[in-house]
Amino acid sequence: MSIAIDTNVLVRLLVRDDEAQFAAARRLVDQAAAAEEPVLIVLGALLETEWVLRRRYRLDKASIASAFTALLESSDVEFEHPPTVEEALYVWAQHPGADFADCLLTARAAHLGRSRFLTFDAGAARLPGVELLA
User: Fold this and answer.
1) Based on the domain organization, do 115 and 54 belong to the same domain?
2) What is the 8-class DSSP label of residue 128?
3) 28 domain-assigned
4) Number of domains in the chain
5) CB-based contacts of 102: which residues, under 8 Å, 6+ apart?
6) Residue 49: which domain range?
7) CB–CB of 131/117 below 8 Å?
8) 104 and 67 in one domain?
9) Please, what is the Cα angle at 30 between 40 and 90, to 5 degrees?
10) What does each of the 134 residues of the chain score in pLDDT, given as a tens digit?
11) Alpha-carbon distance 39 to 36, whole Å?
């Protein structure tokens, strides 16, 4: 079955705001799990999902982090690179004013072997391993 899911499928699974779409998404995940091929969540879809949950559904950081942590612990789904997601969630929890996007981007860069992450964003520059480009 080897599939990846889009942001809108992931959002339906998490917020269950459309019962028909939730049921279809749940069936898909259940079928994939039965075939022992968990659905893949690519990092871009996770990034979009955080934005949608925060902006559209007005969920707070703790709720979003909890939902993402539950996904990490689920055998029904898998992430493109779980260590990146784990590190991003850890850094996000440690830095109250941080954006999830900045945490995810810097974690991915570090996992790709980059020792420096440069930005013009003063807020992001407060994160570990991030430098302000002047």
Assistant:
1) no
2) T
3) yes
4) 2
5) 119, 121, 123, 124, 127, 130
6) 1-80
7) yes
8) no
9) 45
10) 589 999 999 999 999 999 999 999 999 999 999 999 999 999 999 999 999 999 999 999 999 999 999 999 999 999 999 999 999 999 999 999 999 999 999 999 999 999 999 999 999 999 999 999 98
11) 9
